[in-house]
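Incident review: delayed structure delivery

Summary: a single-chain prediction request sat in the queue longer than the usual turnaround. Root cause was a stuck worker, restarted by the on-call engineer. No data loss occurred. The affected request and its eventual output are reproduced below so the record is complete for anyone auditing the incident later.

Affected input:
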Amino acid sequence: MSVTAADYYTLLNIKRDASPDDIKKSFRTLAHRFHPDKNPGDIEAEERFKEISQAYEVLSDPEKRVLYDRTGRSMFESMYGSGNMQGGMGCAGKRGCGCGRGRGGRAAWSHLMQNMAIHEISVTREEAVHGAEISIKPANASDEAAFQVRLPGNLQHGTVLRCMNSGTGDDFFIRIVIADE
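Output delivered after worker restart:
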């Protein structure tokens, strides 16, 4: 039984709009059921426990959850590892050497958040409803460093969008703040 392709919400048996309390309750129930101490020698239960733990780590953190909802699981698998490369040539099974789950953890998340911070962008209600083209200038940059972002319509206060700077190819995230609210 392979659960590596499952959505984090599916792994925790919760809806996409689940509250933090619902996420925690479901995680605790499933973690208790699949914990390796409760299932000694059961490799499938151990893998399921790891998957559930990873899903909980992402969905219980509001910023990680927003990124997950926007980008999907692949971004987090590149940080935590897919679990398919345990050891291998040159790794000697050591954690933190770029193989398997050793690639992830808090250091990878910190690096991601430093390089892909969520920037708050203030827009009018009209711009949020109808869409607009806005100019974004990175902090401490010259006016020439500004670039244009086309916002779609029907945006809500707090919506997070993933954008790409066509000049550099870097991804960045913006959180919509409606000035009228």
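Verification: The two ends are 48 Å apart (CA to CA).
Action items: add queue-age alerting; document worker restart procedure.
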